[in-house]
């Protein structure tokens, strides 16, 4: 419960600092001044959909790059809300200057645009392009070892735009309808906070006040300035990368010996910006994981080559060093995920029981002391109801479609696997959404991993890997999208936006994402060497997820020598670290590393962790020099860094397709 309370005190800007109570009340009061609320059909506009599409495309490119390089994607909802406000406010002002009348830009439209854009790029985040879907391809199958027990010959399916798009359309819309009948219970009756949804609503409400408009202007100006700087820097880097090993992407700032262990600075403004958004403990945990793995363990295990594993094995063999990298990272991820999964389930059950016993008392107290703003919100939220028959019939329809389509795409997945998955999905989605409403922790990936282990073991050796990976996608998609929709409903409730427009905008954004995400993926997949463990596009979670499935089928026999004992140690460390975070006093628990963050560099390497820590250093320095300005501008500057560098991926990819090479080579060499 303490975690939930701490999150509610954080500002939407950085998620790290407390907001002034007076400012919060002022923003809330000003934003809810009685005015004409546009009908739900007017809240979705053509200009809003165009802005959502543009923002969705840009952020899809960004998160796809992050997915296929490190697999670490920060929350970008705040920057999406800022960008939506900037685009539409600039558009309306431009029309006003040239004498063209346009409808006012309201916070309801702002909310709808932000929801649609986030739904669009969330398909790229959670669609499995860097994890369970990519884990099905032939390259990952070969990396897992063609002779590995459980990695059955032919148990792969190479990416294709057609089947990936069809798969996304099949599984993504089920989650939109699973919890619609329960929206009133979760938002109004239980009054769940959904901290991210609340933070986004406060941000949007703040934009649409006189004081907030001035603040937004400063943020938009900062975003534009650093966006341009980031884009120009990425362009300059490209011009200097004309050859193997050329450019600034491997600057040996710590020396050549450290460079060989991937400790170098790559001047990636994407990860510097991500480091500015992520909390300090996340970035420090990443760096600690890099030091433990690439600084200590991998060099030591490499020296045992010939004793622990055959010296004739290539480094990419799962029976060699690569196996230790993969399975030790899995141990950390599973230990962290299992602990938090059980903790959230227990916390959710206890909280629901407590609410049930106090519901009547709370209801009477609320009726005795009604709050005008809450009544106004509740009235709009209830009046603009979504027909229950639509949710039920839609869920049944998409379930039937999945029962037919999924086994056709993947014969290893039996139709009754899909039936059971979708019978359990609403209950799992409710548990996840309820937990997210209390703690802001979306545990969809952990639900997906649990289903992966169960389905892979159930399907057996011949079909287990494919069935586990696909089943993971089914459950994860429903559970994740359900929680995201509840976050959006909370945002809509606080901005007095119709649930109908929220659901429709979410559906439109999801449909956009189901088309844009596969196209973006294939742009990268065809140009870059995605999945190469020695390249920049490692896509580490594809191999991790596939080996989870193999482990479920074969058990511990799939592990290299002495790897099981090390896995026990890392699994235990993950559990103990989480227990310490939950039991120690706040001044100590905040410094306990996050095991799941430590696991990321085990496969990816150390370089990006340095970028992330540079981002933290910028935030720390800025707050030391001017805390108020830092809290205001950090999200805008970080978003500018990420968007500028990310947007450059489009022209650079097109140049690569046209076989246009950079004209200059800048290279760092050692002088004897």
TrEMBL record:
Residues annotated as transmembrane: 44-66, 72-91, 112-134, 161-182, 281-301, 321-342, 386-409, 415-436, 466-486, 507-528, 566-584, 596-620
Taxonomic source organism: Musa acuminata subsp. malaccensis (Wild banana)
UniProt family annotation: Belongs to the YSL (TC 2.A.67.2) family.
Name the UniProt record assigns to this protein: (wild Malaysian banana) hypothetical protein
Subcellular location(s) per record: Membrane
Keywords from the named record: Membrane, Transmembrane, Transmembrane helix, Transport
Record flagged with keyword Flavoprotein: no
Pfam families linked to this entry: OPT
Single Gene Ontology MF annotation: iron-nicotianamine transmembrane transporter activity
Topology relative to the membrane: Multi-pass membrane protein
GO CC list: plasma membrane
Species classification: Eukaryota, Viridiplantae, Streptophyta, Embryophyta, Tracheophyta
Domain of life: Eukaryota
RNA-binding as UniProt keyword: no
GO BP, sorted A to Z: response to iron ion; seed development
């Amino acid at each position: 419960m303490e975690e939930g309370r701490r999150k509610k005190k954080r500002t939407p800007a950085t998620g790290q600092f407390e907001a002034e109570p007076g400012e919060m009340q002022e923003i809330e009061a000003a934003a809810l001044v009685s005015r004409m609320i546009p009908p739900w059909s007017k809240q979705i506009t053509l200009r809003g959909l165009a802005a959502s599409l543009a923002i969705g495309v840009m952020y899809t490119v960004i998160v796809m790059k992050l997915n296929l390089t490190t697999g670490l994607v920060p929350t970008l909802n705040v920057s999406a809300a800022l960008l939506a406000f900037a685009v539409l406010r600039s558009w309306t002002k431009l029309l006003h200057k040239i004498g063209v009348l346009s409808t006012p830009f309201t916070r309801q439209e702002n909310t709808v645009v932000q929801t649609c854009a986030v739904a669009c790029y969330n398909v790229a985040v959670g669609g499995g392009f860097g994890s369970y879907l990519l884990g099905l391809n032939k390259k990952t199958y070969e990396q897992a070892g063609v002779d590995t027990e459980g990695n059955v010959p032919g148990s792969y399916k190479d990416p294709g735009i057609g089947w990936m798009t069809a798969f996304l359309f099949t599984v993504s819309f089920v989650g939109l309808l699973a919890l619609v009948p329960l929206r009133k219970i979760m938002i109004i009756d239980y009054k769940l906070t959904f901290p991210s949804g609340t933070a986004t609503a406060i941000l949007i409400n703040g934009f649409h006040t006189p004081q907030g408009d001035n603040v937004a202007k400063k943020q938009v100006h900062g975003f534009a300035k650093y966006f341009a700087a980031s884009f120009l820097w990425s362009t300059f880097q490209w011009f200097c990368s004309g050859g193997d090993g050329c450019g600034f992407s491997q600057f040996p700032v710590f020396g050549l010996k450290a460079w060989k262990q991937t400790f170098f600075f790559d001047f990636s403004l994407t990860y510097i910006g991500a480091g500015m958004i992520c909390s300090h403990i996340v970035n420090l945990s990443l760096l600690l994981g890099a030091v433990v793995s690439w600084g200590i363990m991998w060099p030591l295990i490499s020296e045992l080559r010939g004793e622990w594993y055959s010296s004739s094995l290539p480094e990419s063999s799962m029976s060699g060093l690569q196996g230790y990298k993969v399975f030790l990272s899995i141990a950390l991820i599973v230990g962290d995920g299992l602990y938090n999964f059980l903790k959230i389930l227990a916390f959710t059950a206890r909280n629901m029981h407590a609410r049930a016993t106090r519901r009547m008392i709370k209801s009477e107290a609320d009726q005795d002391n009604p709050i005008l703003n809450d009544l106004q919100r509740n009235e709009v939220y209830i009046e603009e109801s979504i027909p229950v028959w639509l949710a039920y019939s839609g869920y049944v329809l998409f379930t039937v479609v999945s029962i037919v389509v999924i086994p056709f795409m993947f014969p290893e997945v039996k139709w009754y696997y899909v039936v059971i998955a979708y019978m359990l999905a609403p209950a799992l989605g409710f548990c996840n959404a309820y937990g997210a409403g209390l703690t802001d922790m979306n545990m969809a990936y952990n639900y997906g991993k649990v289903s992966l282990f169960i389905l892979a073991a159930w399907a057996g050796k011949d079909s287990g890997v494919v069935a586990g990976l696909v089943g993971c996608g089914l459950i994860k998609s429903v559970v994740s999208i359900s929680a995201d929709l509840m976050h959006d409903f909370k945002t809509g409730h606080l901005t007095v936006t119709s649930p109908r427009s929220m659901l429709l905008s979410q559906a439109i954004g999801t449909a956009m994402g189901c088309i844009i995400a596969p196209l973006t993926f294939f742009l990268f997949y065809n140009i870059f060497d995605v999945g190469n463990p020695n390249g920049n596009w490692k896509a580490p979670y594809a191999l991790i997820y596939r080996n989870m499935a193999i482990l479920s089928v074969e058990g511990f026999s799939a592990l290299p020598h002495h790897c099981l004992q090390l896995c026990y140690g890392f699994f235990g460390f993950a559990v103990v670290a989480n227990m310490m975070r939950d039991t120690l006093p706040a001044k100590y628990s905040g410094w306990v590393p996050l095991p799941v963050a430590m696991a990321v560099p085990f496969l990816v390497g150390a370089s990006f962790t340095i970028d992330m820590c540079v981002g933290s250093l910028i935030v720390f320095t800025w707050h030391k020099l001017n805390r108020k300005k830092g809290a205001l501008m950090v999200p805008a500057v970080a978003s500018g860094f990420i968007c500028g560098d990310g947007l450059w991926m489009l022209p650079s990819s097109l140049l690569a397709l046209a076989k246009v090479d950079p004209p200059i080579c800048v290279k760092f060499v050692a002088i004897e």
